[in-house]
Structures are given as C-alpha cells and as structure tokens.
Design goal:
The chain has about 170 residues and is an alpha+beta fold. Helices cover about 40% and strands about 20% of the residues. The strands form 4 sheets. A two-stranded antiparallel ribbon has the order 1-2. The chain has a two-stranded antiparallel sheet with strand order 3-4. Strands 5-8 form a two-stranded antiparallel ribbon.
Amino acid sequence: MSAGQITNIFATIRAKLTRTLDELPLIVGNAAVNYSLDAFAKQAWEGKQWDKRKSKKDTGRSLLVKSGRGKRSIRIIRTAPGLVVVGSDIPYMKVHNEGGKISRAARSETFVRNRFSRGDKKGKFKRGTTSGQGLSFKAYSFNMPQRTFLKGTPLFIAAMKRVIRAELQKALKY
C-alpha cells in the first residue's frame, strides 16, 4: 500500500467521523425520544411500573394518555454541536414525570348558557351574553405520583452510549 492510498483512507475516515459527529446530537435525541415513548408503551420506566390511577372511571385507557398531547410533546427541543436537549414544552408533563403536589386556589366562575325557550329554535343557544349562574369551587391539593418517562438514569445513559458507540463504529469502517 502506498503512502497516497493510506492518506486517502485516513481522509475518508476523517470525513465520515466529522459527518457522524455533526449528525450525532440528532441521532441521540431521536434515540432518547424513542426510549421515552417506549416507557409510555410499557407504562413503566426501566422495569418499574407506573402507579395505577386511583379513579376507576378511566380504567380502559393508558396512563398519562388522554388526548395524546403530552405524549406527542416529547421531542428534541434543541441541538447544537455536542449537545441535544429532549423534553416537553407542556408544563403538566413535568409534574407527571417528577411527581409532586398540585394545588388549586379557591375560585368562582360564571357560566352563561342562554337558550331559546320557545318556538322553532327551542333549545338552541342564543347570541349575546346575560348574567348566568355563578359557581364557587373550594381550594384543593393532591399529590401526583411520579410516573417517569424521561430521566438521566444509569440505564438510560448506558443506552445512549450504545447508540453513540454504534454510530462511531459505523463511521470508522472504510
């Protein structure tokens, strides 16, 4: 093998490594999002089952999934060379992931439901607003159980290292 051939091999490897290092934050971010979505599918984080809901009314659906908005919100938030941030932009997902106390202050609301009471429009809503029925709600608080779906645990970090190692090994093949 001549010196020129060896130089070409190293140049090829260098180009592949550079390209891989540029793409690596996006690849690792996608792996982290998929790892998190896997937790939703298993309703567990790394083998630890999520706490069951106390209410019996929604037993037919998955935990943490009502409309799917929270699950869909887990995504890559930001990437930079050597950096990826994965998370959710929905505030209540943080409480679900970390657990904690939720408190609501006392409040009152006015509900206006004006309907036609006579004629062919009977039962349909009227236009405009008039005074309606006022309702008051007491203050309450409860503890939200922790249902982890994204966290830098040792198993999670090891999985991300495996993804990085596999990508670098692909780049080093010539």
